[in-house]
Amino acid sequence: MRLLITDLDNTLYDWVSYFAKAFQAMVTKLAVLLAVDEETLKNEFKRVHQRYGNSEHPFAVLDLPSVRTHFPGASRSEMFQHLEGPLAAFRDARGKYLKLYPSVYSTLVWLSDRGVVVVGHTEAIAELAYYRLQMLGILPFFTHLYALDGELEPHPDPNRDSEQFRPQAGLITFVPKEERKPNPALLQDICSNEGFPFSDGCYVGDSLVRDVAMAKRAGLTAVWARYGTNYPADLWQAVVRVTHRTELDVARESELRAMFHDTQPDHTIDSFSEILPFFDNSEAKSLSDMPAEQPADVA
């Protein structure tokens, strides 16, 4: 195969654990600052997330009723300054817990060296996905990134160097919300855009229902990243506690699970590097010539 399409969250890194811990660090600081209990804040976050249709909406904290009540009349940039403590707690925890899974970096190096086209596909907001790839030091390995348009407001920090975080032209293709997983047309369009037949494409993801079922229906080789489901149950519940998903979303998820309950991946992997044989045609010996892991100072 010559084309790798990979999911990002919980396929390249443990998004659940990172986000749950970073979010909790922010809420703990915020509760002290506002003198508001954490459960009230989480209820408010959930409503804001549902309004935006995303559990990871950037600076959702600025829209919380408790924040607006505590800082009446403050502009977004002023509230951003007032909330530096909680936001710094989130950033610090993100820096500590957002890490690539073992072998991801070395595998991407190996694939890149052999001319395999690597494409990212995610239902995260494009700006956040781009920033994570950049922060983790793996952005240069990606030819394109297919992600959701968050329709975001300008960053609330007036001193932020926006050029540093602006993707190069043509890197990101925005995916319409109506074409979300597990719509197979998504992957067929990606293959078409990248210039490959479906038979040359391999899709890797952690969800049997959303990733594997989609890839199978699209005619690509479907690889289940089973390791991406190995996170503490309490951290998953922490994410669910503030999820944007409504009752309709939950009902749709149940329907999808019933529809694809017997879906079987073409391959199941417990480490990202286990995809290498799928792209190794005549250079079997090169599998033992893996590069060193990601430099410690990259992430």
Description:
With 299 residues, the chain is of the alpha/beta class. It folds into two domains: 189 residues, Rossmann fold; 81 residues. 42% of the residues lie in helices and 12% in strands. Helix 1 crosses helix 10 and helix 8 crosses helix 9. About 2% of the residues have low confidence.
**CATH architectural grouping of the largest domain:** 3-Layer(aba) Sandwich
End-to-end distance: 29 Å
Count structural domains. Answer: 2
DSSP strand (E) fraction?
A: 5-15%
Q: Which segments are poorly predicted (pLDDT under 50) over 5 or more consecutive residues?
A: 282-287
Shape assignment:
globular
Largest sheet: 7 strands, parallel
**Amount of helix:** 40-55%
What is the H/E order? EHHHHHHEHEEHEHEHHE
**Which structural category do the helix and sheet elements fall into?**
alpha/beta
For the largest beta sheet, what order do the strands appear in spatially? Answer: 4-3-2-1-5-6-7
